[in-house]
Amino acid sequence: PQLRRAIEECKRVILALPEHSERQKDAVVRLIHLRLKLQELKDPAEDEPNIRVVLEHRFYKEKSKSVKQMCDKCSTIIWGLIQTWYTCTGCYYRCHSKCLPLVSRPCVRAQVSHQAEYQLSICPESGLDSQDYRCAECRAPISLRGVPSEARQCDYTGLYYCSSCHWNDLAVVPARAIHNWDFEPRKVSRCSMRYLALMVSRPVLKLREINPLLFNYVEELVEIR
């Protein structure tokens, strides 16, 4: 009841203040915080344990309240001061407590541990129709025309993802580096970005077997060999 009264009072103050003034903007931010707090009180997830295991993710409840992060599941802001959120200690996947039951992406740390290897074909596209016009991760409907959701291609896997699973992050693609000595960062999905970040220090590429001709053109490789 106190929160509801505070929300109503905040609304009244916003209407009374000069439009577009700094004080009105501050009041709007306060209103957002109050509404989020009210939503969190309705959410039984607050009573969840400190550790949750989902799809091989090992989620720990975060104690830091001052940072502002983006939820990897719903792609909205995590308000650390008033919302409960979790981080996977393996791949650093972050999400609201209410989004935990909806997580569909397995932990890429587990994938790195079980099968540490790269996709070595350059953007191996098979077409959006082969995915049944659905996101390769969450299976949401997507299309190249942006209706109902924009299809974004990952340059590492060649697959298409929705905007919630592909944030246009940039990463060096190993196949392009090995075959073309091309280190230009390309757009990759969130899953691919985290996988590549975890794999970057693993010595799994046998260049003399994969592309021995590189040693004829790259002087630094000759020195290293």
> How many runs of DSSP E, i.e. beta strands?
10
CATH topology of the largest domain: Herpes Virus-1
* Strand arrangement in the largest pleated sheet: 1-2-5-6
Strand content: 5-15%
Amino-to-carboxy terminus distance: 71 Å
Secondary-structure content class: alpha+beta
CATH architecture of the largest domain: 2-Layer Sandwich
Radius of gyration: 23 Å
The CATH homologous superfamily of the largest domain is termed Zinc/RING finger domain, C3HC4 (zinc finger)
User: Which residues sit in consecutive blocks of at least 5 with pLDDT less than 50?
Assistant: none
What coarse outline follows from CA principal-axis ratios? elongated
- The chain-level mean pLDDT equals 84
Helical coverage, percent range:
25-40%
